[in-house]
Design goal:
By secondary structure, the protein is of the alpha/beta class. 47% of the residues lie in helices and 17% in strands. The chain has twelve helices and eleven strands.
Length: 309
């Protein structure tokens, strides 16, 4: 099955009330873990790449690894640019064969964001590529995205309607209380579902995206710290809240931090318990299995059993 766009995935998600998992990829082991889990659960999946991941892994390598995943499975796979910083990066990914791109103009004012998003939509749509945009600012740090808590802001439902109508974007990432990185909440984890519901009333046919939505799995944080890591007080979005977000109209939920934690915790564990180990296959293989376990659990319990190919 060739790469697909997210269009059919999102139509099904909005109709049946669940979200699709979008997982960030950086290397072979992460790709294999994600795709193996999705394949075993017969679930569609979105593989997404940040501009930093492209710089790290290099575009030709990423494309060939994704191509291998597509050739060895029969599940719908979309290849998505996460947090495209500018038109040029979006164009590069569209020309390379990505089926979906995100243009992140949230750092600009409303009018500048509209114009930039329209430019990307104008290039993407004639080439059969869908576009995700963002309105509102999430706090936190992830790759090239760095927003302080003071500069973060919730998405305005009225602006969301105007933004979608003027830009023609296919999906919209909104800010309702999540944040990038491992430190999402200091107190109780809570999202502004009232804002989400109001936005869905304004734009009922537009798929909604939730960034910064890793659970920051406590067991993995504990494992990291046990074997020499320093991640004190890390806290993410509980799975039950994420599942509720899907029920209320979120069509795509991004996961990155949980995969990083899965890899790092298990690699640290191998090094901690077997200091003489130096065969990369022995620790990267374990890390790959952990990524698979995390993704499989999320597909079955967060993104819902309805999420089937």
């Amino acid at each position: 099955m060739p790469l697909v766009t997210t269009t059919n995935m999102f139509e099904k998600s909005m109709k049946e009330g669940f979200a699709i998992g979008a997982f960030n990829i950086n290397n072979m082991e992460i790709i294999q873990g994600i795709v193996d889990a999705a394949s075993e659960n017969n679930s569609p999946v979105i593989l997404q790449v940040s501009s930093s991941a492209i710089k790290y892994a290099r575009m030709p390598y990423l494309l060939k690894m994704v191509e291998a995943a597509v050739e060895t499975t029969n599940i719908p796979i979309a290849l998505h640019l996460d947090h495209g910083p500018d038109f040029e990066t979006c164009k590069e990914c569209i020309d390379a064969g990505f089926t979906s791109v995100m243009i992140d103009g949230s750092k600009y004012n409303f009018e500048e964001n509209v114009e930039l998003t329209k430019e990307v939509v104008g290039y993407a749509h004639p080439r059969g590529v869908v576009v995700e945009a963002e309105l509102g600012k999430l706090a936190g740090i992830e790759d090239d995205v760095n927003v302080s808590a003071e500069d973060s802001m919730y998405t305005d439902p009225n602006q969301a309607k105007e933004f979608v109508e003027r830009t023609g974007c296919d999906s919209l990432a909104i800010a309702i209380g999540t944040s990038h990185g491992a430190y999402k909440f200091k107190g109780e984890a809570k999202l502004r579902f009232d804002i989400l519901e109001e936005i869905k009333k304004k734009i009922p046919n537009t798929p909604i995206v939730l960034h910064g939505a890793s659970t920051v799995i406590p067991e993995l944080v504990e494992m990291c710290n046990k074997y020499g890591g320093e991640i004190p007080g890390a806290k993410g979005v509980p799975n039950d809240i994420l599942k509720e977000a899907g029920r209320l109209g979120v069509s795509k939920i991004n996961v990155d931090t949980d995969l990083r934690l899965a890899m790092t915790a298990n690699i640290r564990k191998v090094f901690g318990e077997k200091p003489s180990e130096f065969d990369p296959r022995k620790y990267l293989g374990v890390a790959r299995d952990s990524v698979k376990d995390v993704v499989s659990y999320k597909i079955a319990n967060v993104f819902c059993s309805n999420n089937k190919a």
